[in-house]
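User: I'm curious whether this sequence folds into something compact or stays loose and floppy. Could you predict its structure so I can see for myself?
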Amino acid sequence: MELADIAIKFGLIIIIFAISLVVAMYSTYAERKIAAFFQDRVGPNRAGPWGILQPMADGAKMFMKEEIIPTNATPFLFIVGPSLAILTACIGSAVIPWGQNLVIGDKVIPLQVTDINVGILYIFGVVSLGVYGVMIGGWASNNKYSLLGAIRAASQNISYEISMGLSIIALLMVTGTLSLGEIAQQQHGWHWNVLYQPVGFLLFMICAFAETNRTPFDLPECETELVGGYHTEYSSMKLGFYLFAEYINMFISSAVMATLYWGGYNYPGMDWVTAHVGPVIGPLIGTGVFFAKIFAFIFFFMWVRWTIPRFRYDQLMDLGWKILIPLAIANIVITGIVITFLN
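Assistant: Here's the prediction. I'll summarize afterward.
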């Protein structure tokens, strides 16, 4: 790899990292505004015009707050927990194709950090590691509410990762590849996988809510029962890391859903548009379409949070083991039968 290619890759990594942080930061603002709309309130409106500087004010508050480590906590692991949570949230974006290749002169610039042939397995590995940040933080706090929240998070992740994995198996039977780049390319124009795997998409989306600990699956931090759950004892930016990790996970989950099922950067008429606007503007329009899909999913995450109450814990586990897993298995069987007869 030439030095220029390394510089391009490094620049892309920095840009994606910055976008992830900015989207997570302003997702907090969007969530508060959406909640205010649903509850007939105004929402943040003091920090800057229409309150758009509120996320920066919140960030400054987090940085300036006192760092507190409980006396009976395990200091090293208490710090490792939120650090691991934010790290695993950020590295999931490495295999996501953000757009078609840019062609500038003789240079082809891929808008994907790396297109490994096991991209979906990479995503699942990162998601599986993320729960360790929650578990370590909850255990290291030496607080019964934190520990209960961490145990809930681990049980929830195990339950719903099975359903999520099974839903992806049906998709792999249709696409024949584990590479996110290839899956995005196969959905050229309007040939989106959601048309062929609607049940698989529905299962994946429900599991994404559980994996990101979003309502109605936010039992690990259920305030009415566990004070604050696994981050009860956290303050300052260590708490900020946990909160940021949740919003980055929501952003990455939305990007993965858009890539796997909703065509990624593809849209109807994209060839015609690219032919008329050129090989630079065309792919950038596709990237804009991709982000529009991501923001639509983020809005849906927030809409559900302020519309549906959380489940009881037994209802959450029953849904995962008794409904979603059988549905996912049935979807695999039906997909196999359809593929067999069509071939």
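Summary: The longest strand covers residues 102-104. The chain has a mean pLDDT of 88.
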